[in-house]
């Protein structure tokens, strides 16, 4: 089963004291690119989150946002150093009186002085860490489900396009049945007009026509293209299906389609080949979104 690289998931968990919410968003990327936005209180958990995300997300440009809410809003409130605030206030007041400054907001200035307000930066304990990880795993579960649902849509689209290429291949086979006799007839007619039928060495003509027709034969390309298309569908439905493998198979399909066009020497087949190429390009575009 394939998965889309585009994904979204959100999960929350709480224990009566604190509630964590984790949100994940991803877009396609050749590699795993993680961007984390964390509250300062859980900054020490970043490595653990990155490690788990690397194992569970695999690939994509992923944004992870964590938010926290405390039932007791004072639990992580900043503290004010009252003694230091008074000292700053007293000094600022004395300076203001000395210079005759009456409009200064001394109290506000004192609050901004160093170490007056101290943020509570205590790291989360083990219990709170479990709440965070539970929210993370809940978000991952929704995120993975989203990717699978998107992957199902991609799978149906890719299958339909490969089947369309196979239908075009059937059209090539129909046209190809009359191509070689027509080429043979055209060359024979050309020689008759150019040098006269009585002057043509038929044994030599047969040898040359066999060599020329062998160069135009499309049998191998048709067989290989059909094989690649069937292998693509097989790989698409495999349990270990992934975008990179499907991309390699699509490249092989492209080589056979290009060879069909260059060897065909037939306007009808070349028109069909153009339609094949259009579908293959759409397949390649879709594969950029496959995990």
Automatic annotation (TrEMBL):
Domain Endoribonuclease YicC-like C-terminal, chain residue ranges per copy: 178-290
Keyword vocabulary terms for this entry: Endonuclease, Hydrolase, Nuclease
Limits of the Endoribonuclease YicC-like N-terminal domain: 2-155
Pfam families in alphabetical order: YicC-like_C (PF08340), YicC-like_N (PF03755)
Keyword hit for Hydrolase: yes
Keyword RNA-binding appears in the UniProt entry: no
Entry cofactors: a divalent metal cation
NCBIfam families according to UniProt: YicC/YloC family endoribonuclease (TIGR00255)
Family according to the record: Belongs to the YicC/YloC family.
Protein name: YicC family protein
